[in-house]
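Methods: example folding runs. The two proteins below were folded one after another, and each record is reproduced exactly as written to the output file, sequence line first and structure-token line second.
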Amino acid sequence: MKEQFMRTALLLGSVLTGMSFIVMGFTSNVLVFYILGIFRGIGVSVFAVAVVTIGINNWFKKKTGLVTSLVFCTSGITGMMLSPLFTWIIERYSWRRAYVFMGITAC
């Protein structure tokens, strides 16, 4: 039951984050952009650092420090590799398309 709840929460958080990014790419109203930023923050908080660390501590009884460092190292490397890609999309197309691509990536 607990695992199913976590899976559902992570899925909903991911979809909320992704959809917020995608809709941000299509809006031109600053107020709507801010509201979508709130929804994006709520979605990201579902799979943020604390939740991931709790999941790691539940799965691994030994060497949790090693596993935690590997997980967050991987997220840092992914961010490092995606940053030039998003910069290229912004320069080549527009920030709106970059937001749509970020939303697709987040889902």
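Second run, written to the same file directly after the first:
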Amino acid sequence: MKSVKLLLGALLLVMATASCSNVNGKLEKMIPRDAKGVVCVKLPEILDKAEIGDNGHELPAALKKVVEANPKSQFCTILADLPNSGIDPKHNVYVFFTGKTYKMVTLVPIDDTDKAVAAIEKMTDNRFEEMAGVKYIGAGDTYYVMGDGVLLAGSLSRLVDAKTAVAEACRILDAEQPSIADNDDAKECLKGDGDVSAYFDMDGIGTVLNKSKTYRSLVQKMPLITVFTESDIKAVVCDFKIDKTTADLSAKIKVDDHSDYVQLLSATLGQPSNDFLKAIPNSMDCIVAMSVKGEALARLPQMQQLTAAMAKMPGMKALDLAGIISTVNGPLAVGFAKDPYLQGEWNAVVAAKTANAQSVLDRIIEFARTMGQAPQKYGNEYIYQYNNKQVNVGVIGDVVYVKMLDYEQTEGYAYELPDVRDFFAANPIGIYVRAKAGSTSGILNFGITRYVDGKGFFYTEKDDDNAAQVLLGILCSIKGDDQSSDGSADDDLDLNSITGAGNMMQPVD
């Protein structure tokens, strides 16, 4: 009798596994082979690790508070009432990127079409219509199209009529075109053991990025970013695995050993250092640093493009930005954070380890003088005024910094945070991000130590926080941006307030 029970249990397990595989396989076949990137979210594992009750019937108290505090978030709307969303929580969710009609498509498994229809109509304050045998809603630049057990949510790359949008959605849902499963690297990534896995074809991802105003603005201000986004890197594969209070992120950059990318980094990357953290307030939510050999960096076409453009601005030629960059011998870093009170305002700090800090400081002071700014000196800092921000310029050891804050700094510095200090001491390229989730925060450190390997570590602010819950809370807390003038939704970050070095020290009226 015992052996019969074991056999029945094994059969049930095989049937359940086959069912999951069939649904996930069905969704993967809908992802076109020429997709520029794909992300697989293993919903069952994440809900389980977030300790969300069966089928999402009960949210943990901490996560429930975050959801209730963000009633306008579509993600929160779904999470708050997951059992009535129609979403099948036993299978994966897939997101892919393309340069065609849709720039981003999310494929969600549905186990109750009626519930899904009602939930989306409530969320969008719109009604489903029918066309080409499917139900659809067009809401701004997003289309929701209901197929056979699958919801497609697509963000348009350009404004098109409903007929075109629905036709492209049907083409994807029909899964008749060659799929991403034909790509061995992508297939291997999707079958990985991470809770979130991602594959990006860098040859085409630039096409998608160029549709973002934020990215285009970022390239104008920081052209060095194209070393990663527009180089001869073939692909990037990422794997994100969540534990109880932490999560690990690994990334593999697929590129030839003798590629321009490898040769470029081998020539320009310097030794890591954490000295620059002594100039960056610990309130900065994001810190990005790259240790460089300044002379080699100044010779890069991307950097020459930036310095040539800035030299045309009033007074900037006298600053000799190219000369300043050539003195950098270590981290070149930016830290920034949204102002918690003033919407659209950012606070930022730029810091660089340089071979001749005093000479660089003297150039900045002389440049400010030619622009009509007479500084107030307080201690070892020179203080200027720009719009609503106080601009502090100074030197700490061999680090030159420019702080642009709209408040008087009272907090300490990032160097006092052991985890941040240790991280940047070991990584020549590093990113530190802190994001709020209700009364707590999640922190991610991600660095590239070798040219082709990246490793990240996510952890929670409080030792007893649940990592999966904090991650979901961060997603809930993300505020959506208004649509742009051309009708497309875009996260249009005003980079002038962060990197507007050319406008920073204009004469005060």
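Comment on the second run: The mean pLDDT is 83.
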